[in-house]
User: Fold this.
Amino acid sequence: MTPPTLTSPPPQTLRRRGRVVLSTVLAATLGITVVSVATNASAADALISQGKPATASSVENATFPASAAVDGNTGTRWSSTFADPQWLQVDLGSTQSISQVVLNWEAAYASAFTIQTSANGSTWTNISPVTVGQNGLQTLNVTGSGRYVRMNGTTRATPYGYSLWEFQVFGGGGTDPSLPTSDTPDLGPNVRIFEPSTPASTIQSAVDQAFNAQLRSPTAQFGAQRHVFLFKPGTYGRVWANVGFYTTLAGLGLNPDDVTINGAVNVDSGWNYGDESNATQNFWRSMENLSIVPEGGTNRWAVSQAAPMRRVHIKGNLTLAPSNQDNGQGYSSGGYLADSVVDGVVSSGSQQQWYTRDTRIGRWDGGVWNMVYSGVQGAPANAFPNPPHTTLATTPVTREKPFLYVDSAGLYRVFVPALRRNSAGANWPNTAGTSIPMREFYVAKPGDSAARINSALAQGLNLFFTPGTYTLNDTIRVTRANTVVTGIGFPTLIPTGGVEALNIADVDGIKVSGLTFDAGTTNSPTLMSVGRAGVHTDHAANPISLQDVFFRIGSSVQGKATTTLAVHSDDTIIDHIWAWRADHGGAPTGWAVNTGDTGLLVNGDDVLATGLFVEHYQKYEVIWNGNRGRTIFFQNEKPYDVPNQAAWIGPRGNGYAAYKVADSVTDHELWGGGSYAFFSANPSVRVDRAFEVPNRSGVRLRSVLTVSLGDVGTIANVVNDVGGAVPNPAGNTTPRNVVAYP
Assistant:
């Protein structure tokens, strides 16, 4: 019999837990060195190999050329013929100092290889020991110099050849002068920085000017205005800051108590054009890293989605409802509080649902449908649905959001808190983590192109987005482990031509926070993806994390996107996202106008979502294919604009569930989920179930509910065929509750 012809395998689907064991066995057998993933290159070392001429000992075929390993695209690769030895080399153009080599192996990796340099391309010097490869990212810190750098593979780990998605060489000892960095950066015209010596009247005038321009404005909700007010360490006299759309107040201390504001950081109803009677559209604003001594003893923060309060100390009480809540109109709907301390009472009032994580409070009063707490010291006991409190003693895995601060020398830095497990209470003072000087960040400003931003990443820099709108004609690609991508003031990324806005490689420890995405007018298959489909690499020790990342399909743009966020990487932390297919906007919206199928697709295993808000998508709004997934707090509204039942038939009957766990999943948990119907375009529309999950003991839902808002539209069951229908005969907006399933 003729042996079968081998072809290069598809991307590996085995988790690296098993692969590391294999590598260790190979190392012991061959007597060679195992090199694990190291930290990323210093910002002083540039990526000097990307786009340079590359050659190889062989190629499997024309689909896998040597150049594909140095093109900056993790979706293309070099693959050799199926024989030993093989090499891949890059010509840097001149002799350069070499400090680090990063190899992104496909499933066909080397079980023995060295990194070599040469001045002439013929005489080679080893600058690494003989090393065992591994499926996925591998970073080698080296010392050497040369014009040519190559991976010289001597033994294959598989029957296939050698295959690299990317081969990156860092060195050169300098940075691109066209991309300057600084420890005292210019944060742009939308950022105001105050000091304790700044007259209170100056601060008050600045915050009033920003807010008053939005009073009953028909355009502010989807406007281009962005306002960030930063406070250097110290105590500030009376400031009453009303907080409108796209506005952030934040302290610049290392701890919240380093900045004290006397007065208020206030969000109320009564000011938003067309929605003056309630607070359900108080979106896109934030408060971080400061303390407040509230005037009158209570600070008001009546917000809905995409309005996080993080790392705040309220030296008094906190109310989350608007001042008119007792008049039957003052609704507020959804919010997020984390890593904070409230000395007094938190009153939720008319908040329909709320998530609080890793915080200390004096006491919590109130609850409408579902108040969810994880790791909250002082939280009410778990009692859902009466009263409607869902309480977990700890949060399984947390990594708090990076934040900007000023050190004692007046230099700016970004602090990146460390990973915590089974956490409870605020993570300050004495927060463990890493401080990164701002000179290791490229400070992006509106008008920067995707090419310029990618050049900064290739240079070895982190990214810091300043407030404004960024139009992208290409994908921003983050490929290096531990890169920090963060923003202040709701910087908004808008892809053009149907490209993906942001792509995160399947590598350890990338941190993305503080970004907003608007879908462009040409449909994007995804707005953001994490990892690569079909690849399962163990990131448990250093997961990728996403925090305060918001997605919009339809806003000031008639946007379209099939899926807004796709998470392929294992162990990813999703900490507070709002994926929103708009039911209203600055541009017209509608069933055939701002189209979007799915808000969140999870293919990775061991993914944790803490604070998941997904609304109005046209098919399954969350699809969870990975195993051992966990969600703490899920808030959803079904699409308002379904024209008729015939237009909305899913695979299992009428409509699509809000939260779909794939039939293949054997282990999944959800605590505290709600899905609401308001089929205003056609109240006769119904959906058969809000949550659709496989019937097995390892798939568990706790404290979930459905509501028909104003009895407009029908959800026939809560979970699968269990829970009963809304509208509920008991009355208007009365929920159906399922305490535990199964």
